[in-house]
Design goal:
The complex is a heterodimer of chains A (about 270) and B (about 80).
Chain A: H1 37-62, H2 79-105, H3 109-140, H4 149-170, H5 175-189, H6 191-202, H7 220-264
Helix pairs in contact in A: 1-7, 2-3, 2-5, 2-7, 3-4, 3-5, 3-7, 4-5, 4-6
Chain B: H1 20-23, H2 39-81
The chains are: A mainly alpha (about 270), B mainly alpha (about 80).
Chain lengths: ~270, ~80
């Protein structure tokens, strides 16, 4: 798999700059930079992330005690992925918001890539939360799902980001679709603070997991495991965002190259 | 696997009897909910599903990247077939 810097195909302001000279018959398109320094950084990040995840799993099952029965006992170990995944979803939402807002101010491929990649990562990590939470809840609450304010608002947020991802995947890649998705990305992120403060405002079954110890945290090692979990999920989120931004940037490059070559008469059709 | 026996065992509370402030620090069973599932199997399912989803996302990304590589390859072939007029 080839990875590009998100800024590789753009100028300093993120605007795509096609090659000034068209390739001739004998010249292939500029090759993807397999040996780019960014590729090495990406590879190193993959190794570090894998190491942190392995250490996290070791730490959870060998250094962290089981929680009290009311918190789910052994099932509480889901917590060390569940909460960091929710945090990573927030990060995805913020990236989507920043990319979308920037795109609405000035449309560039790079900003579009950030908006779309942010929404996609928010969906993935949001789904992790929605899958892991009910399995823990089954033990702690006795049911998989309840229409608790935090659960409900979180699901709505994930659905908004899912709508953005689906729109961008199947709704075409025109300017109108991009702007509509960007507007949705800005508005969708408004729901994230509501998700976060839903517990404090409206109560419900979901506890305030960290600040009031509601996550079953009763031992220093549990906080350490949670910290490692946050680090692991942050690294994973960075990797996934990077992958998706690279993908969007690559697609934009390919599309611009196709349009330019067809316009110039180098090729009739593909 | 360690087991912390010093932790206080929270008394089971009934849904609807606690204020939101109390609920924020305790796990409150939902009315009608029955604790019948094994914690171990729930834990295994959670980890299994999470890793499957992450791998599926990486696989989808890889497949999209392959499609882009194919597009670039077609561009190169088209360029090689027809010179600029």
């Amino acid at each position: 798999m080839l990875y590009y810097s998100p800024i590789m195909a753009t100028d300093s302001e993120g605007v795509y700059k096609p090659p000034t000279a068209l390739p001739t018959q004998a010249e292939p398109l500029p090759p993807a930079s397999k040996t780019s320094p960014w590729s090495h950084v990406f590879s190193a990040l993959c190794v570090v992330t894998l190491g942190v995840f392995l250490y996290l799993i070791f730490f959870i099952f060998n250094r962290t005690p089981d929680a009290q029965a009311a918190a789910g006992g052994l099932a509480q170990k889901i917590f060390y992925f569940h909460v960091p995944a929710a945090y990573a979803m927030y990060l995805g939402g913020v990236a989507c918001f920043l990319g979308s807002a920037a795109y609405l101010m000035r449309a560039t491929d790079t900003r579009n890539a950030w908006a779309r990649a942010g929404a996609e990562t928010a969906v993935v990590f949001g789904m992790l939360v929605l899958v892991s939470g009910p399995l823990w809840a089954k033990k702690a609450w006795g049911v998989y799902w309840t229409w608790d304010p935090r659960l409900t608002t979180l699901m709505l947020s994930v659905l908004i980001y899912l709508a953005i991802a689906v729109l961008r995947a199947f709704g075409g890649d025109g300017e109108a679709e991009r702007k509509f998705a960007a507007a949705l990305g800005v508005l969708g992120t408004v729901t994230l603070p509501i998700v976060h403060y839903a517990v404090r405002k409206w109560g419900g079954n979901h506890p305030t997991v960290i600040t009031k110890g509601g996550g079953g945290l009763g031992h220093p090692a549990m906080y350490e495991a949670l910290g490692i979990g946050f680090l692991a999920m942050t690294l994973l989120w960075i990797l996934m965002l990077w992958m998706r931004i690279s993908l969007e940037t690559s697609e934009a490059r390919a599309r611009h190259a196709e349009e330019r070559l067809i316009t110039s008469g180098h090729i009739d059709e593909l | 696997m360690q087991t912390d026996t010093n932790q206080p065992q929270a008394a089971p509370a009934k849904s609807g009897t606690l204020s939101p402030a109390d609920r924020s620090t305790e796990f409150v069973p939902t009315q009608g909910g029955a604790e019948s599932a094994s914690a171990g199997s729930l834990l295994v399912w959670a980890y299994l599903l999470m890793w499957t989803m992450l791998l599926a996302f990486v696989l989808m990304t890889w497949l999209r990247q392959q499609r882009i590589n194919d597009r670039v390859a077609r561009l190169e072939q088209a360029l090689a077939r027809k010179p600029a007029s």
